[in-house]
Each structure stands twice: as C-alpha cells, then as structure tokens.
Design goal:
Layout: H1 3-23, E1 33-38, E2 43-49, E3 54-60, H2 64-67, H3 76-92, E4 99-101, H4 110-120
Parallel strand pairs: 1-4
Antiparallel strand pairs: 1-2, 2-3
Function: This is one of the proteins that bind and probably mediate the attachment of the 5S RNA into the large ribosomal subunit, where it forms part of the central protuberance.
Organism: Aquisphaera giovannonii
Keywords: Ribonucleoprotein, Ribosomal protein, RNA-binding, rRNA-binding
C-alpha cells in the first residue's frame, strides 16, 4: 500500500471511530460534553453545549495559567493539570456532571489522566 492510500485509510478509520463515539453523546446545558483534543505537544478540553453550539468552559496547555505550571504540554502530568483546571472552571459555571467525549482516542495515557484528574476535582461522568 502506498503512503497516500495508507494515510487515507488511517484517517477514514479515525473519523469512523470519532463518529461512533460522538453519536452516543449529546451535550446539554445541564450535562455538557467534555470534549478532549490532543496533539503531539498540547492537550485541550472544553465543555460544549450541543443544543446551541456554545463552549461553557475550556482549558488547555496553551493557557498562560497552565503553561506556568507545566514544563511540557504533551505528557500525562500536563493532562492532569488541564483536567483539574477544566473541572474547577466547570464548577465556577455551575456544572458538576458531564459526558466524556474522547473522540477517536483510546481511553489511555493522556486522555485517561485528564479524565481521572477531572473526576478527582469533583466532576461526575
């Protein structure tokens, strides 16, 4: 298989996984969707109300507050900090229950670290 076709196949499988996960989730104002995105150097989390397509709270390793706490944004320690901060911001917005959207990522590594830190900070999912 040449490189272009391989890349297309991988991308197609990733999109199918993402749609399968997202099809079972729907964020509401009372229980928004905690959407996670990870790149090689950073991790992002946001609480989304899908009914009117608004972001209620967000945190990422790009935030100055978090950037000061972590040396590198692409590891589990940074993901845990993002999880705690997004949970604190959710509490300030009056949110204590969410549905977790892991996109096409396995619940493993940085995604798991973010989720566990958010749970420990008081968010239920």
């Amino acid at each position: 298989m040449d490189t272009a076709n391989h890349h297309l196949a991988v991308q197609t499988r990733r999109v199918r996984r993402q749609r399968r996960v997202r099809g079972k989730l729907h964020g509401t104002p009372e229980r928004p969707r905690l959407a996670v995105f990870r790149s090689s150097k950073h991790i992002y989390a946001q609480l989304v109300n899908d009914e009117n397509a608004t972001t209620l709270a967000q945190a990422s390793t790009m935030d100055p507050e978090i950037k000061a706490q972590v040396k590198y944004g692409g590891n589990k320690a940074a993901a845990a900090v993002v999880g705690r901060v997004v949970a604190e911001r959710a509490k300030q917005a009056g949110i204590d229950k969410v549905c977790f959207d892991r996109r096409s990522y396995k619940y493993h590594g940085r995604v798991e670290a973010l989720a566990q830190a958010a749970r420990e900070a008081g968010i239920q999912f």
